[in-house]
Amino acid sequence: MLFGRTQKNPITIADKQVVDWKYAACGYCSTGCSIEVGMNADGKPVASRGVADADVNRGKLCLKGIFEHELFDSAGRGTVPKMRNHWNQEWQRTDWDTALDKLHDEVRRIQAKHGPDSFAIISTGQMLTEEFYTLGKLTRGLIGTNNYDGNTTLCMSSAVSGYKRSFGSDGPPGCYEDFEHTGCLIAWGSNLPEQHPIIYWRMKEAQEKRGFPLIVVDPRVTMLAQNANMHLTITPGTDVVLMNALMHVIFKEGLHDQRYIDANTNGVEALRAEVEKYDPVTAAKICGIDEDTIRVVARTFAKAPAAMQIWTMGINQSTHGSDGVVGINNLALITGNIGKPGGTSLSITGQCNAMGTREWSSCSGLPGFRYLEVPEHRAEMAKFWNVDEEFFPKKRGMLQTDIYQAMEAGQIKGLWLIATNPMSSLPNTARIRRAMEQLEFCVVQDCYQDTESAQYAHVYLPAGTWAEKDGVMTNTERRINRVKPLAIPPGEAKPDLWVFNRMAERFNKAGKVNFPETAGEIFLEMGQLSKGRLADISGMDHALLEKNRGVQWPYTAEQRDKGEVPPKGGKRIYTVDGTFSYPDGRAKLIPLPFIDNNEVPDEKFPIWLNTGRLIEHWHGRTKTGKIGNNNKYSPIPFIEINPDLAAQLGIQRGEYVRMVSRRGDAVAMAQPTQRVPKNMVFLPFHFHDCANRLTLGLLDPHSRQPAYKQSAVRIEKIADQVAAAKLSMEMRKF
Ligand code: SF4
User: How many Cβ atoms from other residues are within 10 Å of residue 191's Cβ?
Assistant: First the structure.
């Protein structure tokens, strides 16, 4: 017994008087934890817990999941539809019919005046898949704008683009179970313990059992880097150089898998010719990793019986994010590390249902990884939905980041924002503000009425959130899991699916297109459309998903009819030679010349600005900023600053500092730490009017994803600390 222990008060856990536990999947990140929400005798959600027999989380939840039941009655929820003629006027309460008629009329007015694509629709990675599918049908089949995208462009479009370029289709090939088989793990720009804590626990448990080397590539000493065997503190924006150098060594030393390359890939000669230029000595001068380390990492990775790579925003949010993903895929392909236990390139997804929108929203094409550019896909979908094939555009329209530039340029006049908040999440806030101010009409559909973007709305539609709704979500490892409605939306708020179906009635007066009313029916319709495709879900239904605590795709009707149960643990794709999604079944090895086009520190702005996430907060804090137990850890923005830089600038711990970039300035509290080098500060991106006042957000040419992580700033000491504290608090009014 510990000294004095007997004199302490015993720890008591408050009895929440739970009488029933209800099932859902967590609505924050893409890990896909199964969760149960405890209801008290009044039917009020009062507790959350992990589901013990769920493959993904095995009873665990992170800090966000544990308090997720507090979302339902958090502050700022919208309870009634509202309208106004101009965004600088006061809101007026209205009814649903008036609000939806207004949205319909404004879409058609703007399209008639400025053309069909002058009205844009931007959704999210937060809704349920059946909602994405219905919105896609409404947008592609009836409204007819090609400028339709999701906020997933800000986090996942580089992964999507890279997978498509390498494998011919989106779709992560691996699964979490790969941690239990791998012989080497490289984590590129991924801080699992904070961003995906439960995936980290899966990885850490496997690593402790089997002792595989963990190699972390990150300019910052993240929590994951602290646990790594090797930490490569790369110069920001130079990942492709390191990847090319690793491949240079692998080819030079004959460590590649020639059999796999011959059987599964095209383009090896061009790739070899390109990486030949990246000898470790030359590469070290650009990427900042010494030549010996490059050689050791290349050998460790290539000699492992199975080796895997994971990555997150450190790769995706870059001017060459798509190339970075292709580089990871190149490394995996030349060493035969795709589709085998422990050998994969696994993009760790961001939002809870970013995968669902990739699969079914029709943002980047048509449902089920079909392309607008492929005539057979257009014909198939037109027939299935009973719409005119010619109504579909023949190629994809603008991505989200380009839509704002088109608004700024006056080409887009109307905007429907659904569960997304560009005023907080897009880089260069001042520019987004100018773009929003120019709109003739904007509607915001969101579960919160007080988002920063609602400032510019003419109509506000109150939506349900998370488990106030019915449907499914797909996680990082292609596992589809069930979310069941366990609360009803507050006041007159409605599930997003209800809103889309009521809008469909207005655009579908002749009743030509069928819009099923329930999520269960919609899921079965999606199942029919998925038959024979990569993401085949035709063997699944809602009941099966709940029973199994999620099922990975593919799971086909044939498997179900043969009585084959969905496998426990993990399932991979591209497991057999020649099954990639290009017509010849082969993956592409793509040479990646390095183009140094980022903003880099200079005399005037000498410090790298690195942005990222904290464990307690979710994206723009729209949710977690209102949950006391999450918000209290970081109620205001702070920067990690190297103690030597802080001393040089005369900055003490806890003082407010001003950061200045070419776009604007922002105030945050200084936290000196050795986690960042002397020429870098790290700023969490969650806070409105902070990180994105500074970020430049140059766009990747393939994915149009912004480079949030490579900007240059200078740091200034603030003389009047009281005024700075006041300003920091005022800026937190959202
Ligand atoms: Fe939810 Fe992600 Fe946390 Fe799991 S790890 S509880 S999915 S936020």
Answer: 22
CA gap 77, 623 in Å, rounded = 10
Three-state secondary-structure class, residue 574: coil
For each successive 10 residues of the chain (734 residues), what is the average pLDDT? 55 83 94 96 94 93 95 94 96 98 98 98 95 97 95 88 95 95 97 95 95 97 96 96 98 98 98 98 97 98 98 92 97 97 94 90 93 96 96 94 94 97 92 94 96 95 97 96 95 98 95 96 97 96 95 96 89 93 97 92 96 91 88 92 97 96 95 97 92 91 91 96 88 66
Instruction: Note the Cα 355 to chain centre separation in Å.
Output: 8
Q: Is the CB of 64 under 6 A from ligand 1?
A: yes
Ligand 1 atom with least separation from CA of 62:
3
Dihedral Cα 460, 461, 462, 467, nearest 10 deg: -140
Three-state secondary-structure class, residue 11: coil
Helix-then-strand count for the chain, H and E: 27, 26
- CB of 198 closer than 6 angstroms to any ligand 1 atom: yes
Strands 45-50 and 607-612: unpaired
> SS3 for 221?
coil
CA-to-CA separations, 448 to 72, 73, 465, in angstroms, rounded: 11, 11, 9
pTM for this entry: 0.93
197 lines ligand 1 (CB under 6 A): yes
